[in-house]
Amino acid sequence: MTDSWSWDSDGLVMSNEAKAPLSFWADDIAANWSTQKNTYVAMTGITPSGHIHVGNMREVVTADAVVRALKALGKTAKFYYVADTFDPLRKVYPFLDEKTYAPFVGQPLSEIPAPDGSGQSYADYFLTPFLESLQTLDIQVSLIRADQAYKEDKYVENIIKALQATQTIKEILKKQTGKVMDEHWSPFVPMCEKTKSMMGNRVLGFDVDKQTVGYVNAQGYESEVPMAGGGKLTWRLDWPARWQIFGVTFEPFGKDHASRGGSFDTAKRFVRDIFDYEIPCSAVYEWVSLTGGGDMSSSKGNVISIAQMTKVMPPEVLKYCVVRAKPNKRLTFDPGLPMLSLVDEFDDLSSKSRHERAAELSAVSDLPPLGVPFKHIISLAQITGGDLEIIQKILKRNGYQEPNLQTLQNRLSYAQAWLEAFAPDDIKFSIAQDLPSEVGALTSSQRQGLGLLAQRLKPEMDASQTHEILYGLKDELQLTPKEIFEAVYIAILGKAKGPRAGFFLASLEHAFVKERFEQAAAVSNQT
Questions:
Q1: Domains in the chain: boundaries
Q2: pLDDT tens across 392-412, in order?
Q3: Residues contacting 509, CB < 8 A, separation 6+
Q4: CA distance 527 to 521
Q5: Which CATH code fits 437-525?
Q6: Backbone angles phi, psi at 213, to 5 degrees
Q7: Does residue 180 contact residue 188 with C-beta atoms inside 8 Å?
Q8: Cβ 108 vs Cβ 98: under 8 Å
Q9: Which of 335, 307, 156, 321 is nearest to 228 (CA)?
């Protein structure tokens, strides 16, 4: 059978009769999908073997964007999320206690205890915070727990098909991957009733009428298990089997599955030849790497969890950072200073960098834009201690239109959380209650400049006017801008760096600034 699907330059799997590309990748997929299928079922999933991180988020956000684009065409779609809770614990990961978890290696994640001793399963321990994050991100999915799906007979028909076609499957694997499976290989992985392990068990035979599979474990123990819940299909068979079971018509997946001889190559053959179903439309996505840490990996502990990020970053911005890039473009995630710029890009409707369609598909709430740079909110959170009323007065004094109070409160809460979790030390500051001793190390010209600022700054001045006064001292006193700003920061903060000086000074009480600079200037008179 010829394959009527192909990869396009953006990593999308589309039919050869697909329409010409539109202006945005998610709309391209939705338009093609809606012309090729009569039903619309999107699916993504993950094995909850560790913390579900921002890198994992790319898959579910990609699918969500396409579902939203489809709905914009007036269509309806189901969106399933499969938690592979029936996968075995493959090893004792670095974040686990070796002594505690070594005995559980090989057992399904749904059947072993959580690391915190809470009584929930290992799978639920990692899955629950992720599902809560999906609600925060306004990604609506129907959850499928793999262990339940297997136990509820949903896979039995396809398990029988796979077992009956074992020889054909071996031939396909050899042709697609070059691997020769041994005579004892089986597409079904039984779970030993004695050891509860899915590792080291060999299938001896199966009974279609009884719907059981006979096996022998590594110690020679022989028995049989029911097809419903007594084991699972190997990954290369499980994936195409679920396409047929749940009627999947679209699924994004990572580039590892798309490699030559990878699981997608075999899944395309298995879904048609074994399970009698068509290949879904899809999209291949690139990895998300962590600045300074390489590709995110739960097993290596190189992660920032989605649950953690939804507490420090507006959910719509978190989605936007994924949606604005084509799935096949590599993303580098940096929760530090670049995050502030990303929030500003999303919130600034006039920004040339802002991608309007990506923002639409990332929307979470109906809150209006704040209209104030997030970097300013970071500064105000520290200047005022998070006092909303004072912040409103400062913004008004600096010429900003009265912001939506709910939006301001929202962004302020994220600013405070970001300061605590990810802010570099040179971004954090506090107003010195007394004149810092570091003022004594300033040059006489710097102290003289502070004295002139005390005279020239006026209560009604905004950030722009204050900035002009600062720069006006440059030529008058033969100082560099760096020397001027350094003097300002040392006098008020006790350190040489701080937020944007114009907005910073205009945000402080004028009487305080005047008195502090006069004190600093007086130090020069004593030396």
A1: 20-165+246-259+281-288, 374-421, 437-525
A2: 999 998 889 888 999 999 999
A3: none
A4: 11
A5: 1.10.10.350
A6: -130, 130
A7: no
A8: no
A9: 156
